[in-house]
Structures are given as C-alpha cells and as structure tokens.
Amino acid sequence: MIHIVFQHSDIDTLQEAIKLDPSLQGEIIQIADDFAVGPVQHIFSDEGIEARKQWWREVLAGGDYDGIVDDGSVPDDRKTVQSLIERLQSDESETIWIWAAQNKHDVSGYYWLVSQLKNFQGRVFILYLNNLPFINEKGQLFYPTNLFDIPPKEFIKAKILVRPVTLSEFEIDPDEWTRICNEAKGVRILEGGKKLAQFDYDYYDESLQKFISGDWQKGNRIIHQFLAKSKEITGDAYLLWRLKNILAQGTFDVQGELKNMKDFEVKLKASQPATDSLAV
After folding, report:
1. Which pLDDT tens digit goes with each residue over 74-92?
2. Is residue 190 assigned to a domain?
3. Domain boundary residue among 127, 146, 181?
4. Which residues pair with 127 in a beta bridge?
5. Cα–Cα dist 25/159, whole Å
6. What are the pLDDT digits (tens) for 20-41?
7. Range of the domain at 263
8. How far is CA 269 from the centre of its chain?
9. 135's torsion region: left (phi>0), alpha (psi -120 to 50) or beta?
C-alpha cells in the first residue's frame, strides 16, 4: 500500500494514524508542487514542465525559497509518478491510496495525479474527505479543510471511506484536468465537490492590499494578517510575489528592499484614504 498526500504537514498526521492502526501500514509519498496556482498548460510535456519551473523561479526570486527549483531540495514530481507507475507495473498486488481533503491544493493535485494512473483502474483508491464531520481534540464536531487538521485517531474511522477510483472517474477527471489546463489561468479555487473555478494571477491582490494601512508594516505582517483573516488563502510565497507586484506599481509607500517579506515595509501614501484597510 502506498499513501499519497499533497501537503507536507499531512505526512506527520498520517504517520501517527498508522501507529494507531497498523492495517494502514504503507509508504507515504507527497506530491510536492502546488497545482492550485501557476501555469499548467501542456503540464505533461517537457515544454510545459519547464515553463512551470521558470514561473516558480520568478515567483520565488529573492525570497526565502529562492533557488529551490534547481537545487534538488524539492522532489521532482514527474520522477515520483514515474516511480509509482514502475512499482505498479512490477508488483500487481501493489495499490495506491490517494488522500485528499476539501481544499484547492489537494483537489488540483488529485486531478494532476489521477490523469497519469488511468492504466491501473482497480488498484488506485481515493479517500476524499468532502464535507465530512470529524471530532477535534476538544471533542467538538468540525469539518476539516486539510488532512493535517484531523486528529490521528480520527483517521482510523476515515479509512472506511476508501473506495476505488471508478472507471467513469478515470474517463471524466483527466478530461476535466485537460479543460483546466487549456484555460491558461493562474489561480484555481475549489467551489465544492471536485469543481475548480479559475481566475487570473491577481485574484488575491485586492484582498491582500486591504491589509496595508497608514502605518509602516513589514511585508510579513501584511501577509500573516491576510492568512489569518481571509476566507480564500494560498501559500505565503505566492502572496509575497503578488505583494511585490502590487508595490511595483508605485501606489504605496515602500522602504527597504523587495526581497524577503521581512526586508521591506509598506504603508498607504499620505493622500490615500485608510477607510477600507482591514489592518489592525
């Protein structure tokens, strides 16, 4: 049994669940990329993969993650899937369990992954925790949007939800992923179920800049406020890139160098009203 997750924090949670329930024993593999953002046109071709890598180089330039696209610190997802396929081909008893919660990151990763595994129908399983209630550490009922939010003991109950990816899904979902790729948008948002809507790269800009106030704030404070208070969020590296793009337009006062999020400060220009600012 091979477990697939799409966020690094999911690994520790699933490992703890396996300790509680040895029947879940198996290798845990993470798909590292966040397919909820960035270009995905021709994503299975060398050209499309390189275009996406170049986009990530530009997004991460100057920040804490600058250089990770090429330094080998991030697993190559294409090689990961090729290894999975080789293992399925060499061992007909091997199975894959795909774990996904109801968030755009997991669902986008699911579409990308399942599009490459359609030759193994019957051996690829899905645990999609879609609008399902769980009990948190305080004994309260809640609906998790991430796997890592679920207490490990609750995973034991979650395993009863496992089911094979159906033949129909293997036909429909790769077509849906192709449609998504062909739209050539930069941001994917989960509308419910497995339905992804797409928007331009500036989707988060308006909400992000509302946290810029009349007082000087470091970039990391603006981003952290956005992450804490906004309904739709994404990774901090993407938000830093978008904040740099906003500030490059010259509509806000900036001091410091636009590199890491702690390297610069920003505030409204003196003539700008602060009435719409959400910063506190």
Report:
1. 999 999 999 999 999 999 9
2. no
3. 181
4. 99
5. 12
6. 988 899 999 999 999 999 999 9
7. 205-268
8. 34
9. beta
The pLDDT value recorded for residue 274 is 57
Distance in angstroms (rounded) separating the CA atoms of residues 246 and 249: 6
Q: How many whole angstroms separate alpha carbon 215 and alpha carbon 227?
A: 19
Q: Which two tokens stand for residue 235?
A: 């990774």
Strand partners, 276: none
98: alpha, beta or left, given left = phi > 0 and alpha = psi -120 to 50?
Answer: beta
Q: Judge whether 225 lies within some domain.
A: yes
Residues 172 and 211 in one domain: no
d(CA 251, CA 84): 49
pLDDT category of residue 273 using cuts at 50, 70 and 90? low
Helix axes 46-60, 236-247, angle to 10 degrees: 70
Q: How many domains does the chain have?
A: 2
In this structure, are 152 and 229 located in the same domain?
no
Domain boundary among 181, 214, 233: 181
What's this model's pTM, rounded to 2 decimal places?
0.92
9 lies in a domain?
yes
- Residue 123 binned pLDDT confidence (cut-offs 50, 70, 90): very high
Cα torsion 63, 65, 67, 70 to 10°: value is -150
| C-alpha radius of gyration, the chain, whole number | 21
The answer to the question of residue 280 being in a domain is no
DSSP 3-state percent helix, strand, coil across the chain (nearest 5): 40, 20, 40
Q: Report the SS3 class of residue 144.
A: coil
Same domain membership, residue 224 and residue 94: no
